[in-house]
Design a protein that fits this description.
Helix content is about 30%, strand content about 35%. The protein has 4 helices and 6 strands. Helix 2 (about 20-40) crosses helix 4 (about 75-85). It is globular and about 45 Å long.
Length: about 160
């Protein structure tokens, strides 16, 4: 079940208006991801297109842990993002954001439609950790999704 887009947009606007400095960086991160997904389909897209994102992460110590516990450094993650961005349409609904002790928890409803494919909708919780310089150094991804064709067991 998708959430109301207008409510999600209003909640995001309110959260942005009251965001702490670390939450501002997480909002910048997700905005840059969404923007770069659009740019990735244009001629001239390459790894340098991720430069604005690299300004808010520590690309030397960055580690991303995915929903299957796979670990990636920045170069590996950037390559995966580039492949994904060039082959999908992505948009999001905002659910919530919380900062606690140098970490930011972001809840989204993510919509991905691969070229020629079917839209998938996942609920995500991403945990962003920051270093002493205020750069993102660690990202954990947690997903909830319903595989295509499967009905929830509680229906």
């Amino acid at each position: 079940m998708t959430i109301d887009r207008a409510q999600a947009a209003a909640a995001m606007a309110e959260a942005r208006a009251n965001a702490s400095p670390l939450c501002v960086k997480v909002f910048a991160y997700i905005d840059l991801i969404e923007h770069t997904v659009k740019v990735a389909k244009q001629p001239g897209f390459d790894d340098s297109s991720w430069a604005p994102l690299e300004e808010i992460i520590d690309k030397h110590t960055f580690k991303r842990v995915g929903n299957f516990r796979e670990e990636m450094d920045w170069a590996t993650y950037r390559a995966m993002l580039s492949q994904w961005a060039g082959t999908t349409t992505f948009w999001k609904n905002f659910r919530g954001i919380t900062e606690a002790g140098g970490r930011v928890f972001l809840e989204l409803e993510e919509h991905n439609t691969p070229e020629g494919g079917v839209e998938s909708v996942v609920n995500s919780l991403s945990l962003y950790e920051f270093d002493a310089a205020g750069k993102i150094c660690h990202l954990d991804i947690y997903l909830q999704y319903l595989p295509p064709g499967m009905e929830p067991y509680w229906n």
